[in-house]
Every structure is written in C-alpha cells, then in structure tokens.
Sequence to fold (224 residues):
Amino acid sequence: QKEVEQNSGPLSVPEGAIASLNCTYSDRGSQSFFWYRQYSGKSPELIMSIYSNGDKEDGRFTAQLNKASQYVSLLIRDSQPSDSATYLCAVGQAGTALIFGKGTTLSVSS
Amino acid sequence: NAGVTQTPKFQVLKTGQSMTLQCAQDMNHNSMYWYRQDPGMGLRLIYYSASEGTTDKGEVPNGYNVSRLNKREFSLRLESAAPSQTSVYFCASSEVGGGTYEQYFGPGTRLTVT
Fold:
C-alpha cells in the first residue's frame, strides 16, 4: 500500500515567520512530488513541484526533496494570513495517478 | 483559457437516483482523473484515464462508472446513489510526458445524497 503521511496540524505561526510543512512517502520508486494549497471550500491549487533531490525556490516558497530519506518539505517564508489553508503533499511515479496525503492545516496569525 | 471545468457545482440526490458529473479541460492534456474528498480522508482516486480511450480503476471505484468521451471530456456516473457517496468530487487533468506530471483541478461538485 503506497502511503503519503503528513501531520494534520494545525500548524500555527505568527505573521512574518517561517512555516515548515513536512511529508513522508512509502514508495521508493516515486519520481514526482507536489505541494498543493487548498482554501476551505475550494479546489486544490498547485503551488510547487519538485522532481530531483535538493531545494527548489519560487518566491516565498521552497520545496525540499530527500529521496534517500523519502521526505519532502515545504517552507513558506514571511508567512502571511492569506497563507492560512490546508497544504496537500502529493507523490507519484511516471505515468501514474498521484497519491495524496491528508493535508496539514496552516494558520497564520496577524 | 478556462482550465478544468465541472458541472454541476452542487447537487442533491435521493438514494437510488442516478446522475452524471461532467468534466472538461482545454489544456490539451492526455490524462484525466476523478477524485472524491471527504473530511479526514483526504483526496481519494475513483477512476482515471491515462489517455483517450482508456480508463482504469483507482482506490475507490465501487458504485461509479466513467466515460472518456474524447480528449477533452471525462464524465463520472453514479448509477444508484447511496448516502455514502455524499462527498465533494474533483476532476483533474495532467500532461504525462516531457518529465512533468502536474495535475490541475476543477472547482469541484458538492454532492449530497439523502
């Protein structure tokens, strides 16, 4: 059974702080890794994708991948109240459907 | 460019009724997916279509059927709705190939079965 695990939270951080969200996966053959943001009552929105070990930065977001440890993380710098949402980690192999974690709820207080 | 569209946005059914959820994408993607999302359960794959003319079962296919009508459209049918099918249904599409497999989601259909 392929699994993607996330801490459900809530993760609470003050405005301007760094939020760190983590995800582990069970399938060593996984090749693609994604972070989605989902606001309450809305659909998941892709915010980061990463395919190779290391860091990938996009604005205030940094995705980190460590395939040896089967670990993916998302850092949000200078967190804003508008970042308050549920963050879904998704993992897949080439040409197959993604496996999603249950999500981590982030709350950024002003 | 509308991306992924779904109809209807909301639906209430009585137990035993049937309905079809429609999904269309204008991104020329080969692959399309149907998920359901329930509180505490995350996103679970119902069916997917890797390419036009093919469909495969996902994690929770029982009680559902799908049709890949053409490259753009992928429908999900509930033949005899049950209260356990009360959920939010999302359609997604992706381009599988060229090393990227990013999925893009539609706005969802909120279904209640009484």
Summary: The two ends of chain A are 41 Å apart (CA to CA). The mean pLDDT of chain A is 94. The first strand of chain A starts at residue 4 and ends at 6. The interface with chain B takes residues 32, 34, 36, 42-46, 49, 51, 88, 90, 92, 94-95, 97-98, 100-103 of chain A (CB under 8 Å).
